[in-house]
Amino acid sequence: MRFEVLILGNSSATPIYERHPTSQVINYNEQLFLIDCGEGTQMQLSRYGIKSNRINHIFISHLHGDHYLGLVGLLSSMHLVGRKSALHIYGPAPLEEILNLHFKYSETVIRYDIIFHTNNPEKEEVIYESRMLSVTSFPLIHRIPCTGFRFSEGKRNAILRADLVEDLGIPAPYYSALKRGMDYVDPSGKVYPAAELTFPAPASRSYAFCSDTVRHPIYLNSIQNVDLLYHESTFLHEMVDRAKETFHTTSLEAAEIAKEVQAKKLLLGHYSARYKTLTPLLEEAQAIFPSTELSMEGKWFLV
Amino acid sequence: MRFEVLILGNSSATPIYERHPTSQVINYNEQLFLIDCGEGTQMQLSRYGIKSNRINHIFISHLHGDHYLGLVGLLSSMHLVGRKSALHIYGPAPLEEILNLHFKYSETVIRYDIIFHTNNPEKEEVIYESRMLSVTSFPLIHRIPCTGFRFSEGKRNAILRADLVEDLGIPAPYYSALKRGMDYVDPSGKVYPAAELTFPAPASRSYAFCSDTVRHPIYLNSIQNVDLLYHESTFLHEMVDRAKETFHTTSLEAAEIAKEVQAKKLLLGHYSARYKTLTPLLEEAQAIFPSTELSMEGKWFLV
Q1: Would residue B66 show up in a list of annotated catalytic residues for this protein?
Q2: Where is the active site (chains A, B) (predicted)?
């Protein structure tokens, strides 16, 4: 079951060196989710071959321009290419007022339903839930109200021992039940225990997105044990004072956080315009947490 | 004296094929002006090597997203890179309300002065005037209030006959006065008529920007005799009904307008997403008005 993250933008507030402001696509089992929507997101989606109308849920962390200024354009383009299905937006309360003001003055009546969900910047909450995936928002500490997001996979199915079930002549329509742990009983009443016909289910995976935030214990519990942690790393640690002042994190701090919460892998991002080359940020983090990668635009990362 | 237009975006509302929404830079004698500011304008400025802080005047035609959604991001970036000088914005009245709402919720206090000028969508008005250049806004006919802009050069200086003035021993500090038509009188009282020491001043140049609009006689007077006319040409003429319905113009109509107002040259733009190749639009216009070019992103056009 696919669970991957595509980076559309990895820049902090001033886009430079062909880097774009924050936006990411999550592909979970061919369902697409968008996190943040900086200026130019619709062009980045088109550049990387993502049809915007496959996205049904958009999560906005906070109302700094580099995290949401692409939203009005994206919503309008979805409208222009004939979208009909409802779109869910999860964001800070005033976002709805901002969108409505734009639509008012451009006299745009969006043809599809926009269902707005207000994120709570004060405490962790489940904001989306399907059979196989849930999304929680949790407080980050930034200059203005800001939330991170955690995408958590539900209990996965066990893996069917295909050779065994075939040899035993178990009818195919029962395979799905076996994978979910239900035993098979044949017409004579003989029980075939699911545990014997399957390998244990793979562990459930999770992805956490933390941008923008100063390093703070408040959100550590929300990102505990994630498989992939995206954590902003705007500065090198030599700029830690500036990071604190602007409510951002350094690369070294991001690595220490990843280690502390026992993440499997760390993804850096939200790079300051002062860094033309990003290797120093990567090296600083890898010295603490070796399993670190740079988020690079256009690249998919496995969760 | 330089008078050129750089195309930053030539797309209509749905950006595609790496085309961007509308924005143009005018360079008049090394003063930079920005017309419209679609999403991604700040990235396009950076791609084409234009320092945003050299721009002191921004003109916004109307409040459809593809003409102004890049403005908040550009203003914020100007702030972040330390702009101090005042910025003049000329646009529809509600634009100020939209900008203020963004700044309110992002808790941004812009460090430089923004001086807002409201464009009148009902009649032609001079909105900017310096010694050598004036800008007028004039009504276009679109789905919402919209204005075009005309950049008109003032009376140009005559050209000094350098060999002659040197031979006559006229002191260099008087050259500038001669070029402006003032005679030189030497210490003995002898008069040297400016007319004899100069070639006639070159004609004053003008550029008009018309986007978005349905073809309509109301604005013809405002663009009469321009040297360079940018006129939107969203569709081929086979789509003329769709053009009228959406208050846009066809390529053939743009050419007929250029001919009617006796423009020297026509620049097409605001291409619909349905056209991957633009040659048919160009050919349709050239059949009526041969001196037509396609506005291409990154290209400078002489006025």
Answers
A1: yes
A2: 66 (proton acceptor)
Residues A185 and A60: beta-carbon distance below 8 Å: no
Q: How far apart are CA B15 and CA B34, in angstroms?
A: 20
Across the interface, do A144 and B105 touch by the CB < 8 Å criterion?
yes
Query: How large is the ipTM?
Result: 0.87
Interchain proximity A98–B101, CB inside 8 Å: yes
The token duo for A275 is 């860094």
On whether both A219 and A263 belong to a single domain, the answer is yes
pLDDT higher than 90, residue A16: no
Say which residue the tokens 């994120």 belong to: A119
CA distances from B58 to A271, B117, B239 (A): 29, 10, 32
pLDDT-based confidence at residue A14 (cuts at 50, 70, 90): confident
Judge if A133 and A235 occupy the same domain: yes
Mean pLDDT of the region A237-245: 96
Partners of A92 on chain B (C-beta within 8 Å) are 105
The two structure tokens encoding residue B11: 């797309």
What three-state secondary structure class fits A42?
helix
Q: Which residue type is seen at A274? A: R
Which residues constitute the domain of residue B239?
Answer: 3-156+202-302
Cβ-based contacts of B73 with chain A (< 8 Å):
21, 39, 65-66, 69
Q: Output the CA–CA distances (angstroms, integers) from residue A182 to A92, A178, A253, in the order listed.
A: 43, 5, 46
Provide the pLDDT confidence category of residue A218 given band limits of 50, 70 and 90. very high
* CA distances to A20, A62, A251, A295, B40 from A283, in Å: 22, 29, 9, 14, 31
- CB–CB contact B144 A106 (8 Å): yes
**Alpha-carbon distance B264 to B203, whole Å?**
13
The residue of chain A with its CA nearest to that of B66 is A73
Domain match, A277 and A173 both: no
pLDDT more than 90, % of chain A: 92
Rounded Cα distance, B259 and B1, in Å: 27
B137 three-state secondary structure: strand
What is the total count of domains within chain B? Answer: 2
